[in-house]
Amino acid sequence: MAQQTILVLNGPNLNLLGTREPQIYGSTTLDEIAQTMRTAARTKGWQIDFRQSNHEGELVDWIQQARTDADAIILNGGAYSHSSIAILDALQAVEKPVIEVHLSNLFKRETFRHHSYISPAAVGLICGFGARGYLLALDALEDCLD
Ligand code: DQA
């Protein structure tokens, strides 16, 4: 069987991880998260396609490509989680398992962060565990992939 590919998508401002409000988001950089995920995925026999964009349309394009190029999606949509119907529609069109991740605990924060437009397209949501949340999402996918 072909190796499973997990598309890991990161939305706006997540390129600044490590230096951006570390008291909220931690000191781990996005590159470090990508490396840790690649190592963890290898032990499961999966490969990681890790991407970040500050642009909503680019994220939509990448989600659409996942229809043919990926087996599952792990998504931290950043602020677009709280605003983007376009990302929700793209995720629903893909029909592959999606795990939503946020580093911070959204429910301890401003009320506008309590609602995510993309959650209805996700198998589940992991938030509040910092960078570890991405690894928890990989583990959660074990029950979602054939
Ligand atoms: C975030 C939470 C969002 O509310 C925020 O806009 C982000 C990061 C998180 O990972 O905690 O950019 O998605």
Write a structural description.
The structure is a single chain. By secondary structure, the chain is an alpha/beta fold. The protein has a single domain, classed as Dehydroquinase, class II (Rossmann fold). It contains 5 helices and 5 strands, in the order βααβαβαββα. The chain has helices spanning 22-25, 30-44, 56-69, 85-94, 132-141; strands at residues 4-10, 46-52, 72-76, 98-102, 124-127. It has a 5-stranded parallel sheet, sandwiched between helices. Helix 4 (85-94) links the parallel strand 3 and strand 4 (98-102). Helix 3 runs parallel beside helix 4. The chain is globular. The relative contact order is 0.20. Bound molecules: 1,3,4-trihydroxy-5-OXO-cyclohexanecarboxylic acid. Residues 13, 76, 78-79, 81, 102-104, 106, 113 line the site of 1,3,4-trihydroxy-5-OXO-cyclohexanecarboxylic acid (DQA). 1,3,4-trihydroxy-5-OXO-cyclohexanecarboxylic acid (DQA) is lined by residues 13, 76, 78-79, 81, 102-104, 106, 113.
Features:
globular, five-stranded parallel β-sheet, alpha/beta, Rossmann fold, 36% helix, binds 1,3,4-trihydroxy-5-OXO-cyclohexanecarboxylic acid
Largest sheet: 5 strands, parallel
Stated plainly, the CATH topology is called Rossmann fold
- The 3D shape can be described as globular
User: In what range is the share of β-strand residues?
Assistant: 15-25%
What's the total helix number?
A: 5
Q: Give the strand order, joined by hyphens, for the main sheet.
A: 2-1-3-4-5
The tally of domains stands at 1
Low-confidence stretches: none
Total number of beta strands: 5
**How confident is the prediction overall: mean pLDDT?**
97
CATH class value: Alpha Beta
The ordered string of helix (H) and strand (E) elements is: EHHEHEHEEH
Class by alpha and beta content: alpha/beta
Q: What is the multimeric organization of the chains shown? A: single chain
**What does the radius of gyration come to?**
14 Å
Through-space gap between termini = 10 Å
Bound molecules: 1,3,4-trihydroxy-5-OXO-cyclohexanecarboxylic acid
